[in-house]
Amino acid sequence: SWRRPKGIDSVVRRKWRGQIKMANIGYGNAKSTRNVHPDGLKHFNINCEKDLELLLMRNTTHAAVIGSAVGKKTRAAIVNRARELDIKVVNGAAKLRKEEDSE
């Protein structure tokens, strides 16, 4: 997170030309587009199948992202349940390669 430069010789604090800009009011994004990804949806982390129930009423504005520590069996169950509930899973194909592809 941003911390204001406080050094006596800091060129950022002194706002010299060619240095990085200091964060000020007005550098933020609009509230309507904040945390919205290029696919038009906000991403929500999922770690178990039960977490999908939280997205039932918000499947038009939010998309599920399966956590990186979720195993293959749980990941497959999450993807199947999300398909039933019509929830988009951003990384649904990750870690679900078939054995025929590797041979």
Would you spell out the secondary-structure blueprint of this structure?
Elements (H helix, E strand, L loop, with lengths): L41 E5 L15 E5 L5 H14 L13 H4 L1
Parallel strand pairs: 1-2
Measured by DSSP, the beta-strand proportion falls in: 5-15%
Question: How is the main sheet built?
Answer: 2 strands, parallel
Write down the Rg: 21 Å
Content-based structural category = alpha+beta
Q: SSE order in H/E notation?
A: EEHH
- Poorly predicted ranges: none
Q: Identify the strand order in the major beta sheet.
A: 1-2
Number of helices: 2
| CA-based shape | elongated
Query: Residue share in helices?
Result: 10-25%
Kindly, what is the distance between the CA atoms of the first and last residues, rounded to a whole number of angstroms? Answer: 46 Å
Question: How many E strands?
Answer: 2
Averaged pLDDT: 91
Summary, kept brief:
By secondary structure, this protein is of the alpha+beta class. Helices cover 17% and strands 10% of the residues. The protein has two helices and two strands, in the order ββαα.
